[in-house]
Task: inverse folding
């Protein structure tokens, strides 16, 4: 029987949130802008009655790079479990 070294476990983080924040928000569009010091991520809800800002998150360029790596890693894991995600062809997104 081969020895199996124990995998290091990720530290547990306790996150506190009020009920409204914990419920989350739905967004079907996003606008990204940046300055030298920060990236601004505007999560939007595009609906027949117009587009509304759902949430705005501002992060440093260093943190943005970590966000991109985490998103790429999670998309890879998602596709490994559920299959390739195909983006719709035709038509440009209103915001990007």
Result:
């Amino acid at each position: 029987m081969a020895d199996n070294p124990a995998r290091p476990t990720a530290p547990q983080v306790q996150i506190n949130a009020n009920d409204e924040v914990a419920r989350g928000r739905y967004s079907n569009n996003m606008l990204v802008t940046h300055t030298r010091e920060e990236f601004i991520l505007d999560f939007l809800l595009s609906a027949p009655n117009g587009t509304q800002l759902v949430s705005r998150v501002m992060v440093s360029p260093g943190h943005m790079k970590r966000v991109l790596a985490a998103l790429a890693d999670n998309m890879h894991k998602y596709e490994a479990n559920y299959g390739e995600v195909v983006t719709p062809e035709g038509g440009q997104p209103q915001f990007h």
Remarks:
- The longest strand covers residues 50-59.
- The helical segments are 19-23, 61-82.
- The mean pLDDT is 89.
